[in-house]
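A quick aside before the break. I want you to see a complete sequence-to-structure record at least once, exactly as it would be stored in a machine-readable document. Don't worry about memorizing anything.
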Amino acid sequence: MVLKFIKFMVKHWGKNLNNRTLDEKLTVKGKIETALHSQTSLYLKPLCRKLKARVLPDDILDSLVKICLQLIDRNYIKANEFFFGNGDRKCAMANWSYYGRYTRKTWTRAYRLQARSSRIK
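That is the input. The structure line, written in tokens, reads:
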């Protein structure tokens, strides 16, 4: 259910983007929307692969089901709470654990370079 919902939403979003006029597509806002769709599709591919192979951990799958059900009911605030806030925090925590290491290394490296350059001056 979750995989079909994600694919449907991305496909529907893409159709809406393609139905725009050429003038709308060529504006800065149109290019940003197109880039956002492409980036989102790219970032969702690993999740879709895990859903298709049925190897996604059960706690994350349960959280995704709750989020999708809230989105279907158009209760976006409740869906956001399930991801970030008062609801089940497993989805947001899983997202952080996948990307947290890379971000910390990048920021630490940038901080060291900045500190080194300030000492040289």
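Two observations worth writing down. Residues 54 and 75 are 27 Å apart (CA to CA). The longest helix spans residues 90-120. We'll return to this after the break.
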